[in-house]
């Protein structure tokens, strides 16, 4: 069970990178082999997120690191243009990126999203079309599909948003 979410430190980097390796393997095994390729995300990228205060760690009751994610408040340039739909609102929002788990605990994604929603009641997230697991989680947690966005390498992502204006907090 997730008992604590805290900022990632540089001392956590090796365990965080291991979680990303586990997540890449999991995605390949569940039909999503093309989302995080060529060792994405690189350690230098995650180190920059740690230094910027955007990287977070999930700990279980024994203090073991079991999940990681990026949470950023404010405008995300990737979400400036959306196609085949629209965002639910243009209010201040938080963005969740690069969520990964060690595979040792269930409920990591839900704990991460609930923590993020406690920080900001308006959350945007995107995922690869083939990431059926994440799409199912987003549906379960009340996110609304809003359209398609394109990430910096030009590939499409399905964009979702959840806001307390439309969804009651459970």
Short summary:
The chain is built from 4 helices and 7 strands; from the N terminus they run E-H-H-E-E-E-H-E-H-E-E. By secondary structure, it is α+β, with helices and mostly antiparallel strands.
Please give the structural blueprint.
Blueprint: E1 2-7, H1 13-29, H2 43-52, E2 55-60, E3 65-73, E4 94-101, H3 108-119, E5 122-127, H4 132-140, E6 144-150, E7 156-163
Parallel strand pairs: 4-5
Antiparallel strand pairs: 1-2, 2-3, 3-4, 5-7, 6-7
Protein architecture, described:
By secondary structure, this protein is α+β, with helices and mostly antiparallel strands. It has one domain (2-163): Gcn5-related N-acetyltransferase (GNAT) (Aminopeptidase, 3-Layer(aba) Sandwich), CATH 3.40.630. It has helices at residues 13-29, 43-52, 108-119, 132-140, and strands at 2-7, 55-60, 65-73, 94-101, 122-127, 144-150, 156-163. It has a 7-stranded mixed sheet with strand order 1-2-3-4-5-7-6.
Provide keyphrases for this structure.
alpha+beta, single chain, 28% helix, 170 residues, globular, Aminopeptidase
Low-confidence runs? none
Using the alpha-carbon principal axes, give the shape: globular
Q: Separation of termini?
A: 18 Å
- Tell me the number of helical segments per DSSP (H or I, 4 or more residues long): 4
So what's the CATH class?
Answer: Alpha Beta
Listing every helix as H and every strand as E from the N terminus to the C terminus, the arrangement reads EHHEEEHEHEE
CATH architecture grouping:
3-Layer(aba) Sandwich
Radius of gyration from CA coordinates: 15 Å
The CATH homologous superfamily name equals: Gcn5-related N-acetyltransferase (GNAT)
Percent strand? 25-35%
- The structural domain count equals 1
The secondary-structure class comes to alpha+beta
What's the β-strand tally?
7
**Main sheet record:** 7 strands, mixed
Report helical residue fraction: 25-40%
The spatial strand order of the largest sheet comes to 1-2-3-4-5-7-6
User: Mean pLDDT across all residues, rounded?
Assistant: 92
CATH topology: Aminopeptidase
